[in-house]
Amino acid sequence: MSLSFIPLVGLPRRSRRRCPRLHSVKASMPSVVKVGILGASGYTGAELLRLLAQHPRAEVSVLTADRSAGKEMGAVYPQFAFGAFGKSLPTLVRSEDVNWASAADLVFCCLPHATTQDIIASLPLSSGLRVVDLSADFRLRDLSSYERWYGGKHRAPVLQKEAVYGISELFRESIRDARLVANPGCYPTTAQLPLIPLLEKRLILPTDIIIDAKSGISGAGRSPTQGTLFCEVADGISAYGVASHRHMPEIEQGLTDAYGSHDPVRVSFTPHLMPMSRGILETIYVKTSSGVDADQMRKCLANRYADEPFVHVLQKGVAPPQTRHVRGSNNCVIQVMNDAISGRAIIISALDNVVKGASGQAIQNMNIMFGFPETMGLECQPTFP
Amino acid sequence: MSLSFIPLVGLPRRSRRRCPRLHSVKASMPSVVKVGILGASGYTGAELLRLLAQHPRAEVSVLTADRSAGKEMGAVYPQFAFGAFGKSLPTLVRSEDVNWASAADLVFCCLPHATTQDIIASLPLSSGLRVVDLSADFRLRDLSSYERWYGGKHRAPVLQKEAVYGISELFRESIRDARLVANPGCYPTTAQLPLIPLLEKRLILPTDIIIDAKSGISGAGRSPTQGTLFCEVADGISAYGVASHRHMPEIEQGLTDAYGSHDPVRVSFTPHLMPMSRGILETIYVKTSSGVDADQMRKCLANRYADEPFVHVLQKGVAPPQTRHVRGSNNCVIQVMNDAISGRAIIISALDNVVKGASGQAIQNMNIMFGFPETMGLECQPTFP
Amino acid sequence: MSLSFIPLVGLPRRSRRRCPRLHSVKASMPSVVKVGILGASGYTGAELLRLLAQHPRAEVSVLTADRSAGKEMGAVYPQFAFGAFGKSLPTLVRSEDVNWASAADLVFCCLPHATTQDIIASLPLSSGLRVVDLSADFRLRDLSSYERWYGGKHRAPVLQKEAVYGISELFRESIRDARLVANPGCYPTTAQLPLIPLLEKRLILPTDIIIDAKSGISGAGRSPTQGTLFCEVADGISAYGVASHRHMPEIEQGLTDAYGSHDPVRVSFTPHLMPMSRGILETIYVKTSSGVDADQMRKCLANRYADEPFVHVLQKGVAPPQTRHVRGSNNCVIQVMNDAISGRAIIISALDNVVKGASGQAIQNMNIMFGFPETMGLECQPTFP
Amino acid sequence: MSLSFIPLVGLPRRSRRRCPRLHSVKASMPSVVKVGILGASGYTGAELLRLLAQHPRAEVSVLTADRSAGKEMGAVYPQFAFGAFGKSLPTLVRSEDVNWASAADLVFCCLPHATTQDIIASLPLSSGLRVVDLSADFRLRDLSSYERWYGGKHRAPVLQKEAVYGISELFRESIRDARLVANPGCYPTTAQLPLIPLLEKRLILPTDIIIDAKSGISGAGRSPTQGTLFCEVADGISAYGVASHRHMPEIEQGLTDAYGSHDPVRVSFTPHLMPMSRGILETIYVKTSSGVDADQMRKCLANRYADEPFVHVLQKGVAPPQTRHVRGSNNCVIQVMNDAISGRAIIISALDNVVKGASGQAIQNMNIMFGFPETMGLECQPTFP
Hints:
CATH class of the largest domain in chain A: Alpha Beta
Number of helices of chain A: 14
Strand content of chain A: 15-25%
Distance between the termini of chain A: 27 Å
GO molecular function (chains A, B, C, D): N-acetyl-gamma-glutamyl-phosphate reductase activity; NAD binding; NADP+ binding
Structural class of chain A: alpha/beta
Largest interface: A-B, 51 and 51 residues
CATH superfamily of the largest domain in chain A: NAD(P)-binding Rossmann-like Domain
Shape of chain A: globular
CATH topology of the largest domain in chain A: Rossmann fold
CATH architecture of the largest domain in chain A: 3-Layer(aba) Sandwich
Pfam families (chains A, B, C, D): Semialdhyde_dh, Semialdhyde_dhC_1
Keywords (chains A, B, C, D): Amino-acid biosynthesis, Arginine biosynthesis, NADP, Oxidoreductase
Number of domains of chain A: 2
Organism (chains A, B, C, D): Chondrus crispus
Oligomer: homotetramer
Number of strands of chain A: 14
Mean pLDDT of chain A: 92
Order of helices and strands of chain A: HEHEHHEHEHEHHEHEHEHEHEEHEEEH
Low-confidence stretches of chain A: 1-27
Radius of gyration of chain A: 20 Å
């Protein structure tokens, strides 16, 4: 399934007036995109490189990592210390030492939450540089919500207004022309891909949506903390951030939009840490609308994603998805089942938090932004065993 | 908290008429209990031995394992191939070769579900032999429910009627005098310990109780199956038995009793397989009764279990329990939190499925049955890291 | 030097007359190779598919799996139940139901050791079908050695004589024209890649070579056995097959050839099972020739593999390779260090047992056999984290 | 033979005059030992508590942790947040705030290497306080060796001279009367238990002893470092400290004493990090003395340890020990096999690095020092699965 240009043609929202930057972007559409990564020394940075290595039209031109500036990537991630691709990578530099106007066509921003606003605001977006931000800084449209959940005033409110929330399958049209894409969180992607179409079609009720989420440890990043040491997380599981995780408002924003009522949709969201490196599985408990059962929900999702290369709805009777069957791939796989209690259904949604939950979706968004086939660089099959 | 004899004295329910076998049992109360294990080659059998090694008043007199008859335990479980205790263990024999009337005072039955009824029916219970059955065969009081969930007619319905369901903390009085204790399932123990007191006190509603359960692999047993191979379960997670797991009716039976209404309490129960050997964590989503919040629920449970050595309710604000903090111990640890959606609460309950979820509770029940302090043989602290 | 090098030198076997198929093979070199997999339901079969999905000139035309015949691959490996590639795969069939002469240009044989000889002997090699055998059946040139280690007479001795041992980097020339390639074992590949050049150049002594090998569990295959259940291998390690593993004679055969003396080179080889799915790390303890130290050994290997895309020798001072840094890739990474005892050195060699140790090297050999670029389909970077 | 054996033999050091404290120690032998732990917030501190919970004659009277002073243990290790034992523990205090003369009879010192000397030197050993030091600070008799390997001058050389190296089974007599026991390293215990008797009896050669050691992650401690994060060590293995690990001189010191020649015994020692929490397995490759094979070696060790409750030599033909079969116990299990190369043998030795490799052996030494049965508090069986 390529990202065909057909829907782009003749749509009023792409008129010169509404999106004046669009045509200049198109005029400068490079045959090879020069890609920079801000904060390349984290897990999402490394994963971007793994995937970009196979992207025929992306060239990694800049890698920044303030504390590791001057080092080669192979010193930070040994898997890039050998092999033609690893050796071809630019040396890590400090962000402030880059002339962004000429260094890159697109920047993936992999910096920690709350540190990103100032840096992105300082980038020359007006010169055509485009940004996919993997942090949470531009995801919450409501600035007061941002302030409440992230503990500080938003420092780039104008940019926030422009930012496009980037679940590729759902917001493709807006992503295409965006200068700044807010790449969604891993938990929110896993939840919204099944829930948004179901709420749009009103097949499920907007109340008492319960999302029990299980994630691998890579989501916690590479900074040393006691809580993510091997001995602290191996051979055991735990809940964290109960009723207080920052991905909750992000999910609620998307579901409220989808349901389209004045009342915000609230969710019960409980993340858990699993003794595995990658993968998210969400078990979502919902109430169905009157007369609706799992079959109709499954059909709705199967139709919605029929032509999508990365979102797969399993057929009736097929065992629910396992994270290991999407590991390393950009897939999100979904199954829907009736609950034992009538009037209820269970949705199970699985993806790789580092790929479709972060770097893979970021590249998918880049492909949309630059008119490349959407699967470019993302064709690897899941790694199992 | 020892299992004091005080409640035993002078209670009418222990009158000769209602429980004639009781006095003969008491008369023959041995200072050391001779213990047999039927099906000692499985994980629950091995775990019973690990714990019994430290029980000063239990002596392992018989170990059966039909396919491994003639072998030493150390050949089946290498950890018993050395050390004084391991070397003291009797050789594995076939069940039919045991003279049960003289061989043991108590039998732990660790056979697979559905194979147990005939064997237990053939044991000389009338001669004073007592049984703790770790299989599911005697847990469901309703024979038609047994037939529906286990796929066959119950073959020992009279014994089923006599069997006492053995969550130690909740049914201690009945366990004390029982000839046959149906040791509860691991998932049902984890769920019922918090839910039964809350339903009894009507602090939560009996509707839409959602139990998202996560278990280590040992619960699947030691028989080789593709689905429990290391490569099939490592570094990934999955749901199974969605809306169709056999522990669901067992939980519903207990909750219905606790709530005490005519309408059965139904639960949504979804188990998941985790890449770890031991441990169960259940995240339970409930609706609170009007005016009730997590604090009241927590207090109710803290009061209920204040004197219990193995069930612990965490204080407000303490992070929810992790399975690794109960690993190897007989503890069940519970926390209660308000959900983000008002009128809802989240209960998190953790235990070691092989100990409190199986062999540990079986020994706790033995201690109750024989008047030993309830913690005897079960004093080991959790193993972490 | 190679398994088949000696007979190749100056022998008419490579002449036009003795090997007429060679040119016909070339003449009929397809732009797309039709690939069959015998025994596709095992881990090496699944891994071949993962890699072939990205091979632009291979088309999977036949998949056999006798016990799963009639099923789709997605029913056997859920990661192929969705996605364009998975859905494009042929249905599993019984081997005997395939018309091999027309069905495929190349067959990867992924059947268990000792079952392969009859099946390969029955294939129409004379019609141009070529075979890469991933079993051990054609690896040992000495038939009596085969009989001793595999417990039965070799049933295809003529084919055995023709088979080419397929470490791609070392025996490329012979592989190119082979009808039957014996794809090397995972442990032997890891050991021979560093040891063969060092023995050829006589930088190390041929005595007391000690290979301490550590492997992930996938090497044991997907058949259910107690010893590879999650609970039996997680959170612990063990040695097995001490001084008696079948890969020992395979390694010794290669090293003896390389050293080129009349006395066979013997090795001390001890494999260990690690709680991980993929990866082999071998720590090899050797005595150096007089005056030789790790620097010279490292240089020798760096030179030998300077132009190889998949074998990488780390620079002096770089930390030794970790299996997780080659996971999912076809790389073998090697480091050499002086031992604390003078006159000794330590070689550490790491690869992914399912890729360079099996399916990846099989595809690399296919690429050699069909004149494709050797990296085709094998360009994926390691997956870390 | 022991670190301190030679000076003990016939030397006045054990006489009443040189060791007046000895009898006063005996005179004041308490029926319950008051135990302090310096540095209780690390893994060895937590493990001491797990074991001491079951020790009937030890009472935990002081716990220090400078950075966590003022907290309860349950806040640092949640497994001690509930249960009678956990709640009975003293609050963490700063070391300098303790009046050691009255606070404890014995101190376990669990501080990091190189920080211990000053603190132990400041303790009132002359008042009868006795110390088991789990750090490496007092293990190396040769002060210049200490300086070379630990990077600084030893700051308590007189105490160092008095310290007794504490492998319980080998140096029991010296430990009994020691004021300061240097508790051995985990790797050195695993290696020396089999090697010392074999070298004493000259069954193996003192040259080219190769120790390939594999350890769980807990040995690296609880301080957050990138290298011990879950994602950095899960599902992969690696060697580290090749030919440069600090446990090498400790092993060599013991082996040199045992062999009793003027030439130091040198070993090749390579540690590896395994994706598991606990356990050490060492595969030791040795040359046998002329005419000696594995049977004689095994018999020698079986005789040496026949009466030992914690060191077990497996019988001929029994599979080599696995770390998971000693997990959580104080056992060291050993097997000896002939190598495939004649004149060589392979020894496999396994223990739990946190127990027999650290805290368990420390308690065993305490038992020796205070005249308790050596198994007291250490009777728990291995935890498997």
